[in-house]
Amino acid sequence: MTSIRIIAAACILAAGATPAIGATSEKLAKPVSIGEQGINGPALSKLDSTRPTMRELHFEQIQKTIQKYLEGEWGTRVKSVQVTLLEPLDPIKIPVGVVELQIPSVAGGSTTMGRRSFSIQVMVNGNTWKTIDALADISAMIDVVVPARFLKSEETIEPDDLTTARIITYDVKHPFITDPEAVIGKSTARPLQPNTPLRPTFLKKPFMVKKGDHVMIEARRGNFSVQTSGVTKGSGQVGQTVMVANLDSGRELRAKIIAPGLVQVEF
């Protein structure tokens, strides 16, 4: 009986010395440095083989590059630039590294908006890697001068008559007025509704003399002159002629506008 137990125990010890089927060996593989020979020959790969060598360039980055380029080109002529990228929209594989996107400047600059194409240089670690052709819709926002109230035709514009409004434009060389100082003191060439973006063609120099103004009529010959009061029958600028009525005689005369409130006749 005792001998059977000894034999059984020996069998159990012998079985424990043999790894079970499917068990994992606890022996670790020796690390291999870059370029180092493995214990069984050359290393199959470098340790950094799992690091990515490419990254993705997304359309938002291209869109922002175009926007910054145009803002630098147009400066204060616009308040903001809107860019809607049309192509490319899919991510582009580029090498890992320090990446810069550059757009070569156009000689003399470009004021064109709407649909435009751009050549974008992809720089990786300071070297040109690739040029991307991009297509985008371009617009800009500008602040324009507008009437703050209804303005009648021939009305002289005062500072309180004006305000500004932000509108969209598709050309840097737009026809709208952006400086209120270019409007103040001018006369309206037509009736203008509030918030109408002003153009130079909507304005003109104000009349120095308007119909119904009381003026001084000066009759001059050489060093001799005579003055009397009159009322204008029309409107005009300096150098133009208008009909005036002499208040003393009631006679109407053709006179030349010399200055505000002064007309001159020859005799």
Word description of this protein:
Helices cover 12% and strands 39% of the residues. By secondary structure, the chain is mostly beta strands. It has three domains: 55-140, no CATH class; 141-204, Antifreeze-like/N-acetylneuraminic acid synthase C-terminal domain (Type Iii Antifreeze Protein Isoform Hplc 12); 214-266, SH3 type barrels, CATH 2.30.30.760. Strand 12 (214-221) and strand 13 form a beta hairpin. It starts with a helix and ends with a strand. 13% of the residues are buried.
| Biggest sheet architecture | 5 strands, antiparallel
Strand-residue fraction? 35-45%
Would you tell me the structural class of the helices and strands? mainly beta
Helicity range of the residues? Answer: 10-25%
Q: What is the total tally of β strands?
A: 16
Tell me briefly what this model is:
The protein is mainly beta.
Using brief descriptors, characterize the structure shown.
five-stranded antiparallel β-sheet; SH3 type barrels; 12% helix; 267 residues; mainly beta; disordered N terminus; Type Iii Antifreeze Protein Isoform Hplc 12
